[in-house]
Amino acid sequence: MKFSHSLTALGLLLAPCASAITVAEITGDKYLSPLSRSAFTNLTGLVTAKGPNGIWIRSTNPDDSEQTSESVYVFSRTVGANLATGDIVTLDGNVTEFRSSNAYLFLTEVTTPRNVQVVSKGNPVQPVVLGAQTSGIIGDKDVSPPTEQYSGLDNGDVFGVPNNVSRISQVNPELDPAQYGMDFWES
Q1: Residue 26 contacts residue 61 (beta carbons within 8 Å)
Q2: d(C-alpha 151, C-alpha 173), whole Å
Q3: 54-59 and 107-120 beta bridge pairing
């Protein structure tokens, strides 16, 4: 088991590398990241929350696309040890699609964080308020979830096709968060 994890880690370290990247470029405008299985350098983000297995960071330079997310999870039990909510950090890492079960959707996350540097401390962490138009925090975006349609893959009948994750993985549709609830939460 350790041998296979070592090969996976080695493969990610030898993967193509993108530099000076943004959170939106990592998450992309689809369910699966366009940079999955790639290494990157120089991601900057604001630590918005800490957990036992990682941190959540929000872009400090958001775009205005409603299709991209401005936050990403950084998976590592040690990355947050010397960090606090409100720190702006830069880091290098790998982009990974994770799911704990075949029944769940993939979650784009950063793994193997390295070269973590604190740029500044004590920055305000403003909440994103659902049901309002934002400006600045995550870009100029409408954060009102749609209430009529669940997914573009279910032909308008959420009970007819239970959004088979294999279809999402195969089709990897472009997100339409203004139209579909599942796309809203992904973005």
Answers
A1: no
A2: 10
A3: unpaired
pLDDT tens digit sequence for 7-60: 444 444 455 666 768 999 999 999 899 999 999 999 999 999 999 999 999 999
Report pTM.
Answer: 0.78
The first and second tokens of residue 50, run together, are 């800490």
- Using the CB atoms, write b or e for 119-146: b if 16+ within 10 Å: eeeeeeeeeeeeeeebeebbbebebeee
**Which DSSP symbol is given to 179?**
T
| DSSP 8-state assignment for residue 115 | E
Q: pLDDT at position 179, please?
A: 80
Token readout for 84 is 């606090």
Beta strands in 76-144 (DSSP E): 88-98, 107-120
**Strand 39-51 and strand 54-59: pairing?**
antiparallel
Measured in degrees and rounded to the nearest 5, phi and psi for residue 16 equal -55, 150
175 vs 162, higher pLDDT = 175
For residue 6, the tally of other CB atoms under 10 A from its CB is 10
